[in-house]
Amino acid sequence: MIRILRQIFSTGIVTEDVLGQEESNIKVVGDRLEETVKKRFRGSLAIRQVDAGSCNGCELEINALNNPIYNCERYGIHFTASPRFADMLLVTGPVSRNMEIALRRTYDATPTPKLVVAVGDCGCNGGIFGETYASLGGIDKVIPVDAYISGCPPTPAALLNGILRAIEGK
Amino acid sequence: MSLLKDAIISALGEDVKFRENYQYPASVVFCTVPKAKFAEAAKAMKKAYALLAAEWVTEETPCFGIFACYRWGSEYLIVKTLTTTDDPTFPTLTKKYLPAYRFERQMNSLMGVVPEGHPDPRPWIKFEDWPQDAWPLRKSFDASSPMPRVEGEYRWARAEGEGVYEIPVGPVHTGIIEPGHFRFQAVGEQIINLEERLGYVHKGIEKRFESMRWEDGFRLAGRVSGDTTVAHGLAYCMALESMTGCIPPERALWLRALFLERERIANHLGDIGAICNDAAFAFMLYQLMRLKEGILRTNSELLGHRFIMDRIIPGGVAVDIDVKGKEKILSELKWLEKEFEKLVTIYDENPSLEDRVRDTGVLLPEKARELCAVGIVARASGMNLDCRIFNSFPPYNQYDRIELDVPVLITGDVHARTWVRIHEVRESIRIIRWLLDNLPDGNISGTIDPPSSEKAGFAAVEGWRGEIIYWLQSGPAGEINRCMVRDPSSINWLGLEQAIQGNIVPDFPLCNKSFNQSYSGHDL
Ligand code: SF4
Fold it and tell me: Using DSSP, how many helices (H) and how many strands (E) does chain A show?
């Protein structure tokens, strides 16, 4: 136990104010995120992530949002287990034919008003998998999409940025 | 001198024909047998203690080529047989080898060849709402247009009896993970059967390869399973290079090994954390995610991509490391090692964690062998296999200098799978140091010609999950006729079904995490 406590204290708070060098305006993004979440979602934005056929690369980066460095919870963003109490669906991958129905059902199970964000080059337009017998292409081929985050996969900073754009309605 | 070759000759005599100058590298034996002898060849391989590594089918009009790849130690042997389009049957290997069970269902679903005597004729990956005659891997299939949906029902395995109930899970799971469906039959808390149903993220990857140019295929290979982008890209490139006789410059080979080990470390750190988290010890998850993030950022800074995607290219690598980069990695390793060891001590000294991970989700060594398991799962269940040793490419083949130490445990439980990972992280740190200390000078890529017609190339690479196999084949015009991908998950998913029996339902996430197999790599 002592070791655990020592490790906790010696690690300290690693959450970064300025998230990475890649987008130095992320502090601004963070502040605006927090503000918008507070204003429009009463301080809590619940996201349901749906993998509609991704290669799992995008999932790794979405997972990274929860690591202590990006710590998206500080902005009031959290991932929920059920679409029933989600404000936003964060959908990755080209929609595979075998996931199409599950994606539609998840969409229908999410209460309105809801936001849908397509993640990754695949989510935006099918990416390298294109449109074939097994891949239907981008998410908007199946459900209406409000915002797009490109990248293969998009970095955690790009994800935060994209989520902000979606909730600001731009 | 090849033991497997001798074994098949002594069993089949004149019936087995060896074909030279067709498949490369030449060290992988390639032979053909008459259809009637296909199962007999499997019997001979089984007797020689070989494991089944893969089974697949190609279309070579007017025939189908049925292939089985066996492995014993460092030897690979591929047996091919032909079956005609009019009578697309072949003898099943399921009686000898368990993994053939799913391989053959998949071959049947996607190419329409029929394994005779297979105990389970249900389709696999092909869902019940696909048209019956949709066989996407056939050349005549129009892959560019969507398929209509038809009526159909999947027949689940059922358990009956007093108090038996069923829990369906998925395809959309609670966490941020890939989709798949699991169905448990349980009595009280205890699981008596788990049936997996995969295929949800089938994106038609193997078919997609066939419409690509050789020089672009590595990008698709790098997206078969995003967490294993380095190893998949590498396996594709190696198979292609062996077909064309291209030998990348030495520096490139060493950098490839560096990328491979960095990918291994990053994924293992995430996995160890996630396993602890599923045993309700979130502290470890956040600590290890912090370390993992460090590695990913260095990747991005030095190599231009957090997961090192698309940095291994046919003929070499796309990015070099300079002196500054080298120093950066070395100092990072120092930090990583120190932090990691502190956490390992905490893992090791925590009795409540130990209580959850020990004797949970046991895959017995004999079961693992029967399933022909690979990678971490195999090494945690007493099987000593690792392509870095047994099918090595430079620099791993400098045994006496690199002294690769592969951990093998025999308990087969969640703890063993975690501990194998812990040991592998340590080992990868050591390998990276050695690689950087001895990195040869020179170019980082060479030229590569497209392969000539009617050739095949094979490669096996030890990704962080385990052995990845690529088998490429060029057609009459030198185009990609077939690209067979075998992720370790294609085999190891079967292991989870076995390991979970007798465990309690709440331990399923923990067991599943300790396997952490790929959905995308399996579904293709
Ligand atoms: S965008 Fe890239 S990382 Fe994301 S699912 Fe597609 S291929 Fe994978």
Answer: 6, 5
The tokens for B308 are 């090192």
Integer Cα distance of B148 and B143 in angstroms: 13
- For the whole model, what pTM was predicted? 0.93
Residue A98 phi, psi (nearest 5): -75, -10
The three-class DSSP label of residue A114 is: coil
**Domain residue ranges of chain B, discontinuous segments joined by +:** 3-116, 205-523
Give per-residue pLDDT as tens, B28-84: 888 989 988 888 889 988 888 999 999 999 998 788 999 999 999 888 999 999 898
CATH class label, B205-523:
mainly alpha
Interface confidence (ipTM) of the complex: 0.90
The three-state secondary structure class of A108 is helix
The answer to whether A121 contacts chain B (CB < 8 Å) is: no
Residue B4 falls in which region: left (phi positive, over 0), alpha (psi -120 to 50) or beta: alpha
- At a CB cut-off of 8 Å and minimum separation 6, what does B319 contact? B255, B302, B303, B304, B311, B444
Q: How far apart are CA A98 and CA A166, in angstroms?
A: 27
- Chain A positions touching B136 (Cβ under 8 A) are 133-134
Q: B43: CA distance to ligand 1 center in Å?
A: 42
By the CB < 8 Å criterion, does B202 face chain A? yes
Contacts of A79 in chain B (CB under 8 A): 175-176
CATH number at residue A155: 3.40.50.12280
Q: Does domain B3-116 have CATH number 3.40.50.300?
A: no
**Probe ligand 1: pick from A152, A155, A159, max atoms within 8 Å of CB?**
A152
Kindly state whether residue A7 falls inside one of the protein's structural domains: no
